[in-house]
């Protein structure tokens, strides 16, 4: 009994101290003020390319959405003009690989580089089969040829998205004029993959201004009809064109490579050149070969020399 009484007294004392501390305003963590909360909400968002110098990053706005435009000035005494770079769709203005390499290294040849944020691709559909249907016999045969990839989306949905991508690019390109005034001279348009297919379509419809030189790398469209039309559209463009095809490019691009070259010869497009280069993503020496080809063709065909 003698041991229990001190324990009870100690517990009562501890509870009394805790109550006093809770009642003391100075012991409580102060609530953030309204001004502090407002200041935090107005803090600038972190740049997507925060690893780059701030001087390289400009912003354009498309449909109320801010997008990055990466700008690098020319280096040395040569000031030939600007290379407008559009990386592959679903990437960024500084997507790792060949296009980022060109963006950083074409400046020494006298070209400023303006790298655009490319349009996005729609998310891939997620096809799921209910568990109750797994053992059911198929009701119909597959409608797609066995040697072609299955259609990702319905044709009308695909066409709608392609038109949205084209509209995005028209709005992006229209905002380059004010920024490009810092770099007078010739204009070289460099693009790759599905972005190249989109720009070829826009140029053929006169929806964007013709560059002095067009460089396309592995151009294609996942839409079969549009992909087959690339060769004729490309051959009918009047500006000098360097068409770079790599053996490891997208199958849809490889499929039309021979046709692109043949039609250019048939339609007597004297300024069209097609070259084959290995452009493995892990092969920087191949990137240098590609840059050398771009620099030489751009300078020669633009009349910059």
UniProtKB/TrEMBL annotation:
Alphabetical UniProt keywords: Signal
InterPro entries from the UniProt entry: DUF3530
Region ranges (Disordered): 26-47, 114-159
Domain of life: Bacteria
Pfam families linked to this entry: DUF3530
Signal peptide location: 1-22
Biased composition (Polar residues): 26-42, 126-135, 141-150
The protein's name: DUF3530 family protein
Naturally occurring in which organism (per UniProt): Shewanella decolorationis S12
């Amino acid at each position: 009994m003698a041991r229990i009484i001190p324990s009870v007294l100690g517990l009562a004392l501890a509870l009394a101290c805790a109550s006093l501390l809770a009642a003391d305003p100075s012991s409580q963590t102060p609530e953030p003020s309204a001004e502090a909360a407002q200041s935090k909400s107005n803090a600038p968002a972190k740049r997507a390319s925060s690893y780059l110098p701030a001087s390289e990053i400009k912003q354009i706005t498309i449909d109320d959405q801010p997008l990055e435009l990466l700008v690098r000035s020319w280096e040395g005494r040569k000031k030939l003009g600007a290379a407008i770079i559009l990386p592959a769709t679903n990437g960024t203005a500084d997507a790792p690989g060949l296009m980022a390499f060109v963006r950083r290294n074409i400046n020494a040849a006298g070209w400023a580089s303006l790298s655009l944020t490319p349009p996005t691709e729609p998310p891939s559909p997620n096809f799921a089969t209910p568990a109750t249907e797994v053992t059911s016999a198929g009701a119909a045969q597959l409608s797609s040829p066995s040697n072609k990839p299955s259609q990702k989306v319905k044709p009308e949905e695909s066409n709608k998205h392609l038109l949205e991508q084209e509209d995005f690019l028209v709005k992006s390109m229209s905002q380059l004029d004010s920024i490009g005034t810092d770099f007078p001279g010739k204009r070289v348009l460099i693009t790759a993959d599905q972005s190249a297919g989109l720009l070829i379509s826009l140029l053929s419809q006169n929806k964007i201004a013709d560059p002095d030189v067009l460089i396309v790398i592995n151009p294609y469209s996942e839409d079969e009809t549009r992909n087959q039309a690339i060769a004729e559209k490309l051959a009918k463009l009047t500006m000098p064109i360097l068409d770079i095809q790599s053996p490891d490019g997208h199958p849809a691009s490889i499929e039309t490579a021979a046709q692109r070259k043949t039609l250019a010869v048939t339609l007597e497009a004297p300024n069209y050149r097609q070259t084959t280069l290995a452009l493995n993503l892990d092969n920087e020496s191949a990137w240098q070969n590609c840059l050398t080809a771009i620099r030489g063709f751009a300078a020669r065909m633009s009349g910059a020399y």
